[in-house]
Automatic annotation (TrEMBL):
<dbReference type="InterPro" id="IPR022369">
    <property type="entry name" value="Integral_membrane_TerC_rswitch"/>
</dbReference>
<feature type="transmembrane region" description="Helical">
    <location>
        <begin position="187"/>
        <end position="208"/>
    </location>
</feature>
<keyword id="KW-1133">Transmembrane helix</keyword>
<feature type="transmembrane region" description="Helical">
    <location>
        <begin position="77"/>
        <end position="95"/>
    </location>
</feature>
<feature type="transmembrane region" description="Helical">
    <location>
        <begin position="6"/>
        <end position="25"/>
    </location>
</feature>
<comment type="similarity">
    <text>Belongs to the TerC family.</text>
</comment>
<feature type="transmembrane region" description="Helical">
    <location>
        <begin position="280"/>
        <end position="299"/>
    </location>
</feature>
<dbReference type="InterPro" id="IPR005496">
    <property type="entry name" value="Integral_membrane_TerC"/>
</dbReference>
<feature type="transmembrane region" description="Helical">
    <location>
        <begin position="255"/>
        <end position="274"/>
    </location>
</feature>
<protein>
    <recommendedName>
        <fullName>TerC family protein</fullName>
    </recommendedName>
</protein>
<keyword id="KW-0472">Membrane</keyword>
<feature type="transmembrane region" description="Helical">
    <location>
        <begin position="128"/>
        <end position="148"/>
    </location>
</feature>
<feature type="transmembrane region" description="Helical">
    <location>
        <begin position="223"/>
        <end position="243"/>
    </location>
</feature>
<feature type="transmembrane region" description="Helical">
    <location>
        <begin position="102"/>
        <end position="122"/>
    </location>
</feature>
<dbReference type="Pfam" id="PF03741">
    <property type="entry name" value="TerC"/>
</dbReference>
<feature type="transmembrane region" description="Helical">
    <location>
        <begin position="37"/>
        <end position="57"/>
    </location>
</feature>
<keyword id="KW-0812">Transmembrane</keyword>
Amino acid sequence: MSLSTLWIGFNLFVLVMLALDLGLFHRTSKVISVKNALLWTGIWVLFAFIFNVFVYYEFGQEKAFEFFTGYIIEKSLSVDNIFVIILIFSYFNVPPAYQHKVLFWGILGALLLRVGFIFAGVELIHRFHWLVYIFGGFLIFTGIKIVTQGEMKLDPQRNPVVKFTRKIFRVTPDFEKDKFFVRKEGVLWATPLFVVVILIEATDLVFAVDSIPAILAISDDTFIVYTSNVFAILGLRSLYFALAGIEKYFIYLKYGLSVILVFVGVKMCIADWYKIPIEISLAFIILTLSVAVLASMVLSNTKKE
């Protein structure tokens, strides 16, 4: 199968799934139950595993390992993104029934933005190999910063993106059901829900600055990087509704993510002298995440007692 056919087929699959999601399964705004969220999370993970099997038979074992490792990295980093989304929804008091629509459009925008990041990142590394050391050093710095920066505080009113949005659009004081825009007396107004979408887009852009270099340390194959990234993002909505409310059980996850980013950064920096086998990278990442999640759950239960 030609590479162009794979690109077209994969993107058609993504478009069909997005159309089914918003057009068929979630045509009306409603509260997403944990059961429904877990079901869709499982479906997206299953799709990713099926695609991983396809990659194995189409491209071989090494590419399959690269896809799976990249998917795990992006999925784990997306959990950190989810906690920020929880803070944003809480700050703006977004009704649960409207959250799915906001996430749908927010993540659709994130997909488009990340495509640009991925193609630019791969092209830059191919043309200017020395950028590998810059990306690697940046990941090491980010990993250390995650641990040392303390608790994240959110103040959207001071966010430059929010300020810019409010300068361009008149924003209604209250939500107008699940609408992003309304027209009053012939004047177009944006709603706070639109502001939330823009803020989520901006937040994902910040996370992409970390996650794209991380996955480029695993593979420089544009198709592998793109597909693993897309699968991780597509499952973000359902994962949000599955994890919302139990984020307290992942309090030590940031330490695991910190260790992973430092590891991946070091992997990039020493690649010219020693290339860490992809199997070892995958095992290290899974082990680190497992320890972080297990520690969070055990210590959270201990504090309750």
